[in-house]
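Homework help board

Subject: predicted structure for assignment chain

Our instructor gave us this sequence and asked us to write out the predicted structure in token form, then describe one feature. I got the tokens but I'm not sure how to describe them. Can anyone check?
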Amino acid sequence: MKPQGPIQIATAGLLLLLLPAAASAQTEAGGTVSAEASVSAHVGAAGTAAGEGWFLQPGLGVAVPLADPEYDVFIDTSLDLSFAAGYLFSLGGGEAYIGPEVVVAYTFEDVDDRIEESAQIDAFAGRFRALGAARFLLDFGGPFLFCRFGVGLDIMHSSWERTVAPYADDSSSDAGLAILNSIGFGAYVSDMVGIVVIFDFPTSIHGHVNFGAPLDFPSVETTDIEMTLGVTIRL
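My token output:
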């Protein structure tokens, strides 16, 4: 066997020094890549996009009347339940969506105490809306902003009972045209569920509304501001 010279011995020693350092650097690089992948995955999970497809949106809110004086005096701020279902189509860029939806809502209208006391009655009132609407949504990778416009049916109804003699009671309903404008914003907290805040501006147009004396109104055009907290469920 040929004896090794000084150059071969020096080269072998240098390799023995460099190999552990190279292995350590490779391990650190792998750890960095894994950490970056973990951060990327976390960001991706937190920033879930709205996406194309079916959605459901139940909501609970309050309705503040802004309308004809007769309606404003008759109704105070009231509890409102709403539900929407629809489908969103992508407009191509993955950030803008548009689609049809159906909106139904019921408002448990709070009859003003002064009306009940002055007429000596116990009154109940409510309104039901069913509309077809179009929604436009902008997605920001988790947070989103949307607006909608709808037209449909608005049904006002009321019943009352006189609390003093001569005792009497009556009830009636009236159907009118409903027009809905809405803006809202929210964010997805998981792949399927998002939280939304909606501001609805429904207007209804009715003819002579006669719920029976003393709840007898001329033609009424009502407008409300409804503030709703809802949940969007993507199917």
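Reply (TA_rk): Your tokens look well-formed. For the description, you could write something like this. The two ends are 76 Å apart (CA to CA). That's the kind of observation they're looking for.
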